[in-house]
Description:
The structure is a single chain. The protein is 43% helix and 10% strand. With 595 residues, the chain is α/β, with parallel strands linked by helices. The strands form 2 sheets. The chain has a 6-stranded parallel beta sheet.
Amino acid sequence: MRIGLLTEGGYPYVGGEGGVWCDRLVRGLDRHEFDVYAFSTGQAQEDAGWVELPPQVQRVRTAPLWVAEEDGVVHGRRARRRFTEHYGELAAALCTAAEPGTAQKPGIAQRPGTAGRPGIAAEPGTAEADRFANALHGLAELARDEGGLVAALRSEQAVRALERTCRAPGARRAAREARVPDLLTVADHLERALRPLSLDWYEEDGLGAVDLCHAASGGIAALPGLLAGHFFGVPLVVTEYGVRLRTHYLTRPDASPAVRSLLAAFHGLLTAETYRAASYLVPGNAHARRWQERCGADRAKLRTIHPGLDATPFARVGEDRLPEDREKDEKREKRERQEKQEHAGPHTLVWLGRVEPAKDLVSLLHAFAEVRAAEPGTRLRIVGRPSGHEGEAYLGHCRALAAQLFPDEADGPHAVGRNPVSFEELGGPGAETTADVHAGGAVTVLSSVVEGFPVGLIEAMFCGRATVSTDVGAVVEVIGGTGLVVPPRNPRALAEACVSLLRDPERRARLGAAARARALELFSVEQNVAAFRGLYLETVARTPVRRPVLDGAGDPQPFAAPAEAHVPGHWTEPTPRAVPTWAVETPEPVTETVR
Length: 595
């Protein structure tokens, strides 16, 4: 079949978010064809170029979200009237939609038991959802007819339409209090968010030619999939390893209440429409699944598929660490200790990741002070690079704290030599690869206070390592019963868990073997690809036939139409539209019957 893969700031760009799992998915499904439709997020990303694409990627079409490309379209009077009508309807939906976490209002439907609960998004009422969807589709049809909406979305006409709806009766208080700078900010955000409407992707030889659209994330990336479904009936699958609506709720803390309210309404309605139109929603873990349900997702559409990681780079370390190979393992450790005295494996704790405040290395260092008091020979290796300027400052703070906590063993405030805590980067001495880092330690530690899907923890599991982690994000789901989990921001609990494993080598070996078995079963590339293969076939098989797709020789293309299309039945016929009785023409008899 032919898949339209929709991405935002990810595949096929080098280093793009989510690009690794997209690349593994495309390469694993080598019997399908892929058309990639990608949004770039900056000039630096475009300058970095693309990853090497496999032959099953037939076409790549890109568009920038960070800049508006002038299309030179000038609308006539009728087109301007249509734009004002549809944009005004969209703005009206934003001004009357329920605010996140508020109690039920007249005309706003909420799920039972969610009214007034913090963090729960109120489901938009049917009127607001329909108004938003109709306005969005109306704008898309106008852009398709006229060649684009770039100038219209950036015009004074759009700002005035937004102002009228904010001042209209029935608008929420936050919308009524919006001032001119607030309106300009919201209009600018809507212009950027609606840029995909002006693209030339929605043609028969574009997204109309694919059998299925797969959005690699929610939000703007799913918008072309919504339009492909509207124009051509193409089914949509949406994968979310991190829920975009939740991310939006956690951003813009310094904006005015009016801006936060209107933008939250827009993203909430866009998410609700995406969840409604999608054939299936694919959360990457139970944490994301719960957030999707809170944001209004239908449970019947949810299919959890864990991200797939390549276990091959960790096979040597993981297999050598199995209990039955303990003698071989001990000999290898003895050899490594002789070669690298500064990296003693049996009494070393390992932390690996991006250095940033959310990782809470301060609590880890305080916990290690207690570990060091109980087990004097223990060392701590912190391996990772800082994330941006904030990460640089945080790393400096952690270095200073390590020197302060262990003053007798450090030569200076930033010394590493005799300090039991070492700060390293991948590729440095003794840390050539991630597998080598885990091989140099007895226990892998995760001390985060905020975490999504802990990929680094899975890598440690592939290496057969026992782990100590904080209970955040999807950690418990990943670990299962193969590691120790403690509350976040609790150095004493973290220290006690580490000491218990350091003093019990047999328990470490059992937990490490169980962790590797769990990771291979649930988090490998193979399980991820197999799950998506089945989901693709299930989605297409449930989709009504749109049209036969022929190749150059005039023969039908395999998998270009659903399986049931080859079997006569009612599902091969289009569903008749309801027609009122007064609109049905009744033929008049030619002659009158005489009795």
